[in-house]
Amino acid sequence: MTDAIAHANADPSVRPQDDLFRHVNGTWLATAKIDPDKSSAGGFMDLRDAAEQDVLDIIESLPASAPDTDEGRIGALYRSFMDEDRIEALGATPLHPVFNAIAAIDSPSALARHLGWSLRHGLSPLVALYEESDPGDPERYAAFTSQAGLGLPDETYYRLDEHAEIREQYLAHLRRAFELAGFFDAEEQAQAVLALETQIAAHHWDRVRLRDLRAMYNPTSLADLKAASPDFDWDAYLEGAEIPADILGDLIVAQPSFIEGVAPLLASAPLDTWRSWARWKAISGLSGYLSSDFVDARFDFYEQILSGNEEQRPRWKRGVALVEGVLGEAVGRLYVAEHFQPEKKAAMDELVGNLLAAYRVSIEKLDWMTDETRAEALHKLEKFTPKIGYPVKWRDYSALTLSEDDLIANVLAANSFELDYTIGRIGKGVDKDEWQMFPQTVNAYYHPLRNEIVFPAAILQPPFFNADADDAVNYAAIGAVIGHEVGHGFDDKGSTWDGDGRLRDWWQPADREAFEALAEKLVTQYDGLVPEGVDSGSVNGKLTVGENIGDLGGLDIAYEAWLLAGGDPDGEPIDGLTPAQRFFVGWAQAWRGKRRPEAMKVLLATDPHSPNEFRCNQIVRNIEPFYTAFGVSEGDALWLAPDERVAIW
User: Fold this and answer.
1) What are the C-alpha distances in Å from 195 to residues 38, 190, 444, 554?
2) pTM
3) Residues 292, 294, 299, 302: what is their CA dihedral angle, to the nearest 10 degrees?
4) Average pLDDT for the chain
5) Cis before 264 (ω within 30)
6) Mind listing the pLDDT tens digit for each residue in 24-47?
7) Which regions of the chain carry the CATH code 1.10.1380.10?
8) Buried b (16+ CB within 10 A) or exposed e, 235-273
9) Which fold has domain 94-274?
10) What is the 3-state secondary structure (H, E, C) of 476-504?
């Protein structure tokens, strides 16, 4: 057994009773540098860097292959991206055919047709279209429409005073983009785009409202959608997108007021304004694949201003990202063959089993839940499907044709291929073997419509999972990740689905009221927290409540699962730490990370996850064994009065 705790990262001058996050990670936080091409650093980023390098090694080791094989597609796409000489020589030329088509837009119907074309080719459409399990009938795929059309991170950036400077910088970026594309009236077009996007943003739902899944489940016939938005020529839109109308006879409108509000703009806003907006979407959607002046302009705004990055990512990293975005499962198949050990799956199966057992014990003894709701919760728990490592079958890319000498054509073809994949599944049975992350992705997820928890191969490494570590550390790290994802099945959003993935109210009214009261206490705990180094913005407790419930349940249940697996809190110390202390130190080091202030501001405004320091510290304030492990008492900074502590699951 190896010691899985990185003692060199700790700051002994900080007491764990006051700040567990900095006690465990303080020296690292004070000395670690964020790479100039990144906005953050830490355990997650270390694993992502390693996976990125592994994928590069795979790509570069591929022998010359036939173009109709996955290996041939990977090689062709990567080489087309790395052909800098050709890309530089082309400059803005690849945009000209798109600009010519936009110049021909002479009516709202022609505009709708172009919006459809943009949807097909991945150029930031006004209305997004995707397929997913139908919440009313989770055995089949349904078509969904969703709000889109903005160039800033979300609607708040167009209306709040705190983002006024960003708006000015965005306007300058728009002007620069139009100048690079060869337009002499760049200022006028930039102003028109910002004004139109501001009007579009006024109809966007905010991020808290987007957590209301019942409000976003609006089954609608295409005929009724047309009637509700008569200014939007849906027939022309579908024609431009090459989507047969009969496929969308029925669809689910996620934000009805958005479509009803934005549709009149197609007729009331001047066509010149819409043409400018369409040009900007083409530039924006393709700028990462154009000559260096476009790439640099995009970097300067989206990565430097918004995220604080100091340098452009090396070209090979951007090429790897493109390959993974287009051919992620083809890459994943090769990645798993080289980097995933079967014994990890066996160990994870055991961990998942113990976490689910601990949830079962916890739900059975909840004092705030009635027997009727408890039976439903246990039924949902029994139906959880764990997926570990990689999918049992791989996606078929045989219909995708790519070349080595035309990057823009490859990008447009890949986006069109993806839309065909989407519309080809609408109305058909759900593929229960499908994954929505790649094996080489360092992350995990819960899918409420499938009631499944998914853990890709790449996250099953230290600091999250270490086959040679003591159980206390593993249960606190990967165990809490497992518990977190299970917890999403019972958070403010996940609890609106049943065990079959159906949007259904399975709660007794008194239980729902008790749950919401506990969740509101957690909202209050987080609301207004300000991370270190940020001069504006704070945590939005309502936006982050789902992830905070996941963190709370994840750690609490991971501790119980560790006990079920034979963990002894008062067992033999290792390096001066009792097993219980090692558990909480393992939790804290899993959150080792830092983020640039610019990127932190975007996170606070848009991300449902709290900053790492609060994901670590605020959660343990609610966990009773933490108080016992470190002798936390009143007067310590992490002390929380017993009646303020929250225990949900």
Assistant:
1) 31, 9, 38, 44
2) 0.94
3) -170
4) 95
5) no
6) 999 999 999 999 999 999 999 999
7) 94-274
8) ebbbbbbebeeebbebbbbbbbebbbbbbebbeebebeb
9) Neutral endopeptidase; domain 2 (1.10.1380)
10) HHHHHHHHHHHHHCCCCCHHHECCCCCEC
